[in-house]
Amino acid sequence: EKLLADTGITLQYLPADIFFDIYNNMPVSDEIIAMADKYIDQAKEMRHADRQDVINGIKSYLVAAKILENEKADAISMDCLGALGDKDISLPCISWSRMNNDGIPAICEADTGAIAAQVMVQYLFDRPGFQQDPVADTSDDTIIGAHCSCPTRLNGFKEPPEPFELVHHHGNRDAVPRTIWKIGQRVTSVDVLPARGNEQKRSKLLISTGTVIDNMSVPPSGGCVVSVKVKFDGGHEVLSFPGFHQLFFYGDY
Predict the structure, then answer these.
(1) Can you give the pTM of this predicted structure?
(2) How many domains does the chain have?
């Protein structure tokens, strides 16, 4: 265990084998099948991904929940592609989407700064954030935020979810939710940069606000399947937009 800089968050590291072992020993129960079928029914449509992909994704969700229960933890992240990329185990895209819907901070790629940001957003604003990879579009000075694990309850944990589709991960495997963001919705971007000793003695926040202007279709666009285009306030130079894995979330804060 160790503290994450000055955030008050305690990090506990586990070997990826724990995830593998629980997944491989968990039978596909009636509960998993029922959860998967309900999830499929809630989706606007399902493309490329199939029912078995969704069942596998729900199984990964319950594996992650079991790890949290065993470790008495409040949030989770893992080196998703590094640990699972060559395994016949569902990537945790559905897992993280659903956990963030449930109010359990969950983050891709073992990014501790993004974990701190997700904790902050959920605890302060009662809604999940969307961890994304920022892509600059210089044709209209916007930022496209792209990832494959977007939550659907963007309006709040107790509010109706946004519509979503079930599609393949951009690596053409598994099932992931493609959440449709409201055009014209005001959003906030937050990035937590944890302190790094003498190089940066205190943690920093990068905060911006903007407006959703489009949901990019992937394909034909490349990258992760949830690709939301945002026009930020203040005339930022998009090629030098600061940070990475910022969280986008609904509301102007």
Answers:
(1) 0.94
(2) 1
